[in-house]
Amino acid sequence: MLELKHISYTVQEGDSTLGILNDISLSIDDHKLVVFTGPNGGGKTTLAKIIMGLVKPTAGQILWNGQDITDLGITERARLGISYGFQQPPRFKGLTVRDLLTLASGDEKLSKDRCCQYLTKVGLCANDYLDREVDVSLSGGEVKRIEIASILARNSQLMIFDEPEAGIDLWSFARLTETFEQIHANGTATMIIISHQERIISLADEVIVVGDGAIRHRGSAQDILPQILADTTGGCPVLMTKGGAAQ
C-alpha cells in the first residue's frame, strides 16, 4: 500500500513562497489502477515525482508497504519496486534498446523473445529497434514507448506513468491501453497514471482530480468521467461548487 500523509511542497519566488502542493493525504491499495487528472499546472506531476523521490516534499510523510521512504533516494525506491515513466524520457547515446531492456530487467541473459514481448506491448517490433541506440535518431513517441517497455521489463510493484499517451500515435495508444488493462487484470502491480485521456481514465479503479495543489475530488471513473466530459466552458465542474466558487 502507498500512503501519503500531509504532503506539502513549496518553492521560493523572490521574497515570496509559492505553494505547489498543500497538505495532501491519500492512500492507494495494492494492485489498483489510479489516474491523476485535472488542470495543467495543478500539481499532478509534482505529486508523482514526490512519490518517486525526484522531488523532496517540504513537509509530510510517504509510506510504501509500511516503510517510511520519505528520505530515500530514487535508486533506493527503485530497489523497493517503484518505477517512473517521464513525460519526456531521457535519451542515452551509446546505449541500445536491447541494453536498456537488459538493464531494466536485471537479467544479463535477457532473450530476444522476452525483449520482443516487452516491445510488442507498446507497439514496436524488436527486429526494428533492438540494436538501435536510444538517441536523437528516435522520435519522441518512439523513446516514450521504449521507456514504457523498460518499465514493463522491471516488473515493478508500483508503476508511475506521466502522460504515457504523449507523442504516441493512435495505433500504439490502443496497444498501450491494452497493456495497462492486462497488467491490471494480472493483479501484479499498482499503477498510477497521469492522464487527460478518456480511454485511460475509464480504466481506473479510482480517479483523483488534482487542482491548485490539492485533491479536489476523488471517486470511481463512472462518477468522475461524466463531470469532466460535461466541461465545455473551460471551467472544470469537479473543481467548483454549485455556487461557482472553488472548493
Protein traits:
4-stranded antiparallel β-sheet, 247 residues, globular, alpha/beta, 6-stranded mixed β-sheet, 33% helix, disordered C terminus, 12 strands
Which helices and strands, and how do they pair?
Blueprint: E1 2-13, E2 16-28, E3 33-37, H1 44-52, E4 59-64, E5 67-68, H2 74-79, E6 82-85, E7 92-96, H3 97-105, H4 112-120, H5 126-129, E8 133-134, H6 140-154, E9 158-162, H7 170-186, E10 190-194, H8 198-201, E11 206-211, E12 214-219, H9 221-229
Parallel strand pairs: 3-10, 3-11, 6-9, 9-10
Antiparallel strand pairs: 1-2, 1-4, 4-5, 7-8, 11-12
Calculate the mean pLDDT score and round it.
88
* Radius of gyration from the alpha-carbon trace, in angstroms: 19 Å
> Strand share of the residues?
25-35%
Helicity range of the residues? 25-40%
Question: Termini, distance in Å?
Answer: 28 Å
Q: SSE order in H/E notation?
A: EEEHEEHEEHHHEHEHEHEEH
Strand order of the largest sheet: 6-9-10-3-11-12
- Cα shape: globular
What is the tally of beta strands? 12
Low-pLDDT parts are: 241-247
Quick structural gist:
The protein is of the alpha/beta class and about 250 residues long.
Write up this protein:
- This protein has 247 residues and is of the alpha/beta class.
- The protein is 33% helix and 29% strand.
- It has helices spanning 44-52, 74-79, 97-105, 112-120, 126-129, 140-154, 170-186, 198-201, 221-229; strands at residues 2-13, 16-28, 33-37, 59-64, 67-68, 82-85, 92-96, 133-134, 158-162, 190-194, 206-211, 214-219.
- A 6-stranded mixed beta sheet has the order 6-9-10-3-11-12, with helices on both faces.
- A hairpin with a 2-residue loop joins strand 4 and strand 5.
- Helix 3 runs parallel beside helix 6 (140-154).
- The longest helix has 17 residues, at 170-186.
